[in-house]
Write a structure and sequence with these properties.
The structure holds two protein chains of two kinds. In chain A, 39% of the residues lie in helices and 15% in strands. Chain B has 14 helices and 17 strands. Chain B is globular, with a radius of gyration of 21 Å. By secondary structure, chain B is an alpha+beta fold. Chain B has a single domain, classed as Amidase signature (AS) domain (Amidase signature (AS) enzymes), CATH 3.90.1300.10. The chains are: A alpha+beta, B alpha+beta.
Amino acid sequence: MEIVFATATQLAQMIRDKEVSAVEVLSAYLEQIDKHNSKINAIATLDAQTARKRAKQADEALARGENWGALHGVPITVKDTFETSGLLTTAGYKPLKNYIPTQDATVVARLRQAGAIILGKTNPAEMASDFQSTNDLFGRVNNPWNIDYTSGGSSGGSAAAIAAGFSALDLGNDCSGSTRQPAHFCGVFALKPTDRRLPTTGHIPEVPGMPKCIRQLMTVGSFARSIEDLQLCLSLTVGADSKQPDIPPVPLDRPSEKSLQNLRIAWTDGWEEIPVASEIQKAIKSVANKLTQVGVYVEQWKPLQFDLQKAFQLCNQLTAFNFIYSQPADFDAARKAFPVMFREATEGEKELRNLSNLSQFLPTLLNPTLKGYFETLTKRDHLIAQMDEALKPWDVWLCPVAMTTAFTHRPKGAFIEIEGRKVPYFLANSAYTMLFNLTGHPVVVIPIGQTNNELPIGMQIVGKRWKEMELIAIATKINKVVGKFQHRPLSLT
Amino acid sequence: MNIIFATASQLAQMIRDKEVSAVEVLSAYLEQIDKHNSKINAHREADLFEIATLDAEEAQKRAKQADEALARGKNWGALHGVPITVKDIIETAGLVTTAGYPRLKDHIPSEDATTVARMKAAGAIIFAKTNSPKLGGDYQTNNPLFGQTNNPWDFNRTVGGSSGGSAAAVAAGFSPLDLGSDIGGSIRLPSHYCGVYGFMPTDRRVSTAGHLPPLPGQSKYIRHMLRIGPLARCVEDLQLCFSLIAGADIKQPEIPPVPLDKPTEKKLSELRIAWTYGYDFLPISKDTRSCIQNFIKGLSDTGCYLEECNPTDLDWEEALANYSAFASYELFASTSVKDIVQGIQFTIKTEFLARTQTNFKSGTPLTRKGNLAFPPTMAKYKTILTERDRQIAQMDRFMDEWDAWICPVSITPAFPHCDTGKPIKVDGVKFPYLLACGGYTMPLNLIGSPVVVIPIGQSKEGLAIGVQIVGKRWQDLKLLAIANAITKVVAKFQHPLFSLT
């Protein structure tokens, strides 16, 4: 097995047992990046010199019998929306092109404290606000499976880096799908935890200096080549943060250890109103069949009386309320937003556009009222309760990640064609992910197959709020039966 | 033993062990209320008006059922058969809940508030609603529906607010336990004024589903600072009630499933306790000061480490300013224009009186953040939330060094009834109304700390004086254990003299 495609857990063990040195591991990644990043452009900023120093220190420490923690000497990357002390952090946003933070984001600090070596920052969508990853500072990220296709966004660089063997672990964020959709597009594993599980201190947005505006929907996410790594990352980053009192000290739950055959698993290949590409549907159906074959109770299911349009509307409104004031009034950003709004309002089938439309944002963006905010939060409370109640009889719920798999590069907001239908951009990318930002439920994404033109297909495994360890345990069991993780062959260019 | 002044825990045990029946216990309370609450009986010297609505018939039915269940060997829970009261601001199914608000005078909720349901699920019998000012919006207890509630220690004085009826009922032996609420001092101030124990849990520990405001049908706009908590005659009862009501609620997803913390195993002598007489800009009365002095002396005899200090870095006046702005943003986001106008008028009135009649010539910290500028905006709200984060972090850092911080509840014991907003005289000097009542309680709502109030003594005029014991956020049982240990050694409960007649 090539080092660059080992999992973080494997690397940690190999380094600890001195089967390989931290310096060797880092060099392997740096070489891989050197060979392949120019085509993929997943890496925004490389910190080779510092990383090499640190790797050397890691080996020396080990030789002295010291252990920095569970990720001692393991090279990781961090999405460029997270502050990294002493290392350029831009969020792909021009005004921050020279910004060097003096402090780590909380989750970054925790991984560093566990011994991880940050070898670089991965390329995001500008200000984490798109489902493709491109920005004025570092350009566009290409999908490692086919560079004519997007890697997704906004954590496109993160997902691509994991898929292409550029690092062992990456941290992203997820506000309406920004971790799960790229994971699905690039064929890697990802976790979006419960709303308010992990501290977002040091994440941009907000732009440094702005008040902390984003208090719902956005979570820290993680990318890896195994579910074990997701669990490791979660256990290292979880916990209250004195800088973010909103994060309650809920301990990680204890998994029930139910066997696969004792689980009740609900699954859906999508709602008719938001039709999913048939290859995705086929892959999910195949998952259901395989699970049935090994004796798991699976049932095709969707929550009754779930008003999709209302949910989308709520999500859009709450997003607007949260993101307003998260960056300074910016003529450039406003200028860029207009064509996007225009495309959203005009491209794609009318029926689908009516379901969820970014222009719903506009009244809220132009005149956000506190009253409106509280009304939205109240409606959200009801929806969360509804989803909690609906999920009670099930251990997990399997869903598509998006209506589409990776698509060819195009302007933000341009329609996506799915089996002859012109689907509005944001709907195609986030219809199935934003629901769980709205309700706050934790989700694991696993690769379950590939399309006919060899693009990855992933699946959401949705768990109960605040029960990540249970979800991860079940996802691990499911993955053993149906998982189709493959790393991009090194030869593919 | 005297039933009406027994604690809820004692009553639960006595009923369980069949030393007394649930019916007997309820009758004792109904008799006490009949003697001292209602305004019909002309033989009494004065009336208390603590009880808003009495549900005697239903409660008697339930008490009988409780005894029958026990006879069959059934146990409903930790409070099986114990009669309790609930502040009229918290919804009780089938029992009128008005929040002292004329528009709600006939409001009969179809569902219990979550906390009420949990008390009932533990076997408690809710037999009355206790009086509150209109929508809990004052530091005195008076409303057009049920009138003015008088302090059991001196009927000419206030019980405080807004859980005024709650505190007085517990003090006067009308009930062993009451469920109140606190958004700026509303559990703690009445507890202090009436000489009882009160507990305000950590922000977001206990569900507020079923609390009014918001009014039925309104969006939930109060999302911070408001807590529901118990008032009782001992700390043990506070612990019991808290453990029954705390925890995640499907109706309120914002309540996280933080498990109850473990009470401290440390002995009193091993504790580090910070304490203060308060801040220079808001000096406490001489009586309050000597009470606290004696209390601290008593504490120091136990061997614990005591140090006089205030939370480092935390600007108390700024906390008051942030509190006031924040509260106005959440409270006025959804109310009617009429209520907003009334709110503004009240703020202007209290500030004007402060500037013209007290030493606060340039106003109090409460309007420093321009909360007079309506409507409240998203931008202001987000800024205040961020300010609050900062101050919470400062308090958390301070509390890392201490097991508890002791501070005054208010600058004076109960004051004579007066018009709302009128400055309060303390040792001959007038102080602005809101600061006099809430200057030491409001910032702790902003910051989210859990607080226990315990009675520590009396003023020269025989008025109750209590003190706040502040704990670390999310460590409520630890705080309660500390308060319990303290009360076993230093401060004992007393009930007002009249109630013995």
